[in-house]
Amino acid sequence: MSDLREKIKNDFKEAFKAKEISRLSVLKMLNAAIANAEIAKNREELSEEELIGVISSEAKKRKDAIEQYEKAGRENLAGKEKEELEILKNYLPEQLSEEKIREFVQKTIKKIGADSSADFGKAMGKIAPQLKGKADGAIIAKIVKEELEK
User: Fold this and answer.
1) pLDDT digits (tens, 9 = 90+) for 43-54
2) Based on the number of CB atoms within 10 Å of its own CB, is 119 exposed (0-12), middle (13-18) or buried (19 or more)?
3) Residue 135 and residue 95 in contact, taking contact as beta carbons nearer than 8 Å
4) What CATH code is assigned to 98-148?
5) Radius of gyration in angstroms for the set of CA atoms belonging to the chain, rounded to a whole number
6) Which CATH number fits domain 3-89: 2.40.50.140, 1.10.10.10, 3.30.930.10, 1.10.1510.10?
7) Cut 0.70: pTM above it
8) In this predicted model, what pLDDT tens digit does every residue of 71-112 receive, in sequence order?
9) Measured between alpha carbons, how far is 147 from 106 in angstroms, rounded to an integer?
């Protein structure tokens, strides 16, 4: 069992014993998402990278929900989603700053010879997998677009 999967299981047990309802709820949901991913891939256990992908996906769902709730003026629901997002962030690798992402994007664009917005797909195809779990895809896309338009 991977270290990350072990950490999630141990934190689930701790949250259960401590009766931390919101943390327990998020970890239950995360365990279910992991189990579904394992079933979908027809495997007993996901790799560390695949686990991070599942957690990132769940975090993205929370970010999208926060945005929607805030647009609708539902701050109470947005607050709940923010709390869940903070719990999920504990299981993700440290996120890169925009500056670090920009440096990586510039190097990669130069390396692959992308020079116009027509090369956006080509650039994202190289960059996104390497930054998966380390940076938000929307931020990566925004930076790639800006760099290609220079």
Assistant:
1) 889 988 889 889
2) middle
3) yes
4) 1.10.10.410
5) 18
6) 1.10.1510.10
7) yes
8) 999 999 999 999 999 999 999 988 889 999 999 999 999 998
9) 7
